[in-house]
Design brief:
zinc ion binding, three-stranded antiparallel sheet, 11 strands, Aminopeptidase, 351 residues, zinc, metallocarboxypeptidase activity, BH3831 protein
Amino acid sequence: MAKAWMKAISGLFLILSLFVVPSGIQQAFAVGNGPNYNGNETIKKERVKNYEEMVSFLEHVTSRSDLLELETIGQSVMGRDLFLVTFGTNPDNPTIVFLTQQHGNEEMVTEGALNVIKNLSTNSRQVRELADSVNVLFVPRLNPDGAEADVLFELEDYVGGGLSTRTNANGVDLNRDHTDLTQPETRALHENVLQKYDIDYLIDFHHQGTSQAIDGRYVSGSMLYPTNSSVTPEVVEGSKQLGKVVYDAVEARGFGLIGRYNGGTANTIARNGLASTYGFSTLLFEMRGMTDHSREEAVLGQKSNGYLIKQAEIAMTAAMEAIADGSILEADTSFWDELPLQRPIGEEEGE
């Protein structure tokens, strides 16, 4: 019976979110083959909400639904509020966190999260039934100062002129601060989300550079589970199951090409540190291209942005549904043994 109504929910989200393909974009692996920055292109952020627009959006969509709550969990270095959006409040239900934009120049994943939040604000019967089976926590744009390029250092060497930056205002990479917790953004995340809620799963959304490829084809994204030896086998297995759910959902759409991320084992990064410290399953999901960077190869032309936003929506929606109906527990993780490792054409950083 539960799976029957969850199929109805799935249909709703496909209609609301997944079947709408941005206009003017080519089909068939358009994300992976989308245009790179070529040195002559004007870098724009037309699809991205600035901080004030994001705050207004979150206040509006959460105010129209009794299933969504908007909380302030702390402030950034430059004093911007950091937000948590909660959906579902049953402590007996499994809980997943969607974390976006630890790096300020990795912005399309936040747009995907905002679209999913909007879909969850409809108050439809299907959405209410989803809330009866899963709790979802959104931490959108953990690094608002980097996203606004409101930082305490110079950005004159950035390709787009300093539209956004990877680090926070202090020049610290937040995804290297999950052990020491020296920054207000990471402390807010840990103290007011990770330590406050009983979490089962977390997807840490990022963007990587544009040069990663499989067999000569650029990827649209990459994934990896926790690889630190302190993470228990049960947590790793849950992480791999989460990855299988996301991979299948993206593959089913036919325009994505997902590779295996070549990541490290340090607990300073969320993928490893959160799984080790808190004992919940984590997945790193990297999208292709950033909105600004000091290296040209990292910046992706804006024509691919619509697909990248959609890819994030697909991942979040599939994860919520699979956790809600329990099908995630049946996910076959052997696919990881065959998932090709992406290889860079040139050098780049990630995670």
